[in-house]
């Protein structure tokens, strides 16, 4: 759970940058490939990440101005929409205090502190970004290093094959 707006904002910006680096590798062709039968496509997963990025804080009662649950169909729209969602959340917490994070709100049949809702927002994004990178690999897309170099980045550095 986040107990500081400053801490949330720092983590949010870092994790959003990692998600953007993945989204920027998507192609229109990759979005609708049936990579794993009966599972989300890259497009569906990206839309879910975007809509929840602003949607979870919105449900928690943060003033997320401009939030709407939409479907984006091109890689360019996905990048633009995600960047907008990230900014909406930054603006929504801008005038909050650390005490705001202790306030409770009804969430999905439970009662969550707002700081927990923001933590779930970040963790949810990380969880689905991991799924996205697997789908990206299956689609033949390059995968950016998020918490260290990806296989492609490792090889480009001329380093010995990683275990």
Instruction: Output the radius of gyration.
Output: 17 Å
What's the domain count?
1
What is the level 1 CATH name?
Mainly Alpha
Q: How much beta, percentage-wise?
A: under 5%
Give the topology string: H per helix, E per strand. HHHHEEHH
Number of helix segments? Answer: 6
Features:
Four Helix Bundle (Hemerythrin (Met), subunit A), 6 helices, mainly alpha, single chain, 2 strands
Give the SSE map:
Layout: H1 5-23, H2 28-31, H3 42-59, H4 75-94, E1 104-107, E2 110-113, H5 114-138, H6 151-156
Antiparallel strand pairs: 1-2
Q: In brief, what are we looking at here?
A:
The chain has helices at about 5-25, 30, 40-60, 75-95, 115-140, 150-155; strands at about 105, 110-115. With about 160 residues, the chain is mainly alpha-helical.
Can you describe what's shown?
The chain is mainly alpha-helical and 163 residues long. The protein has one domain (5-156): Up-down Bundle (Four Helix Bundle (Hemerythrin (Met), subunit A)). 56% of the residues lie in helices and 5% in strands. It has helices at 5-23, 28-31, 42-59, 75-94, 114-138, 151-156; strands at 104-107, 110-113. It has a two-stranded antiparallel ribbon. The radius of gyration is 17 Å and the shape is globular. The mean pLDDT is 94.
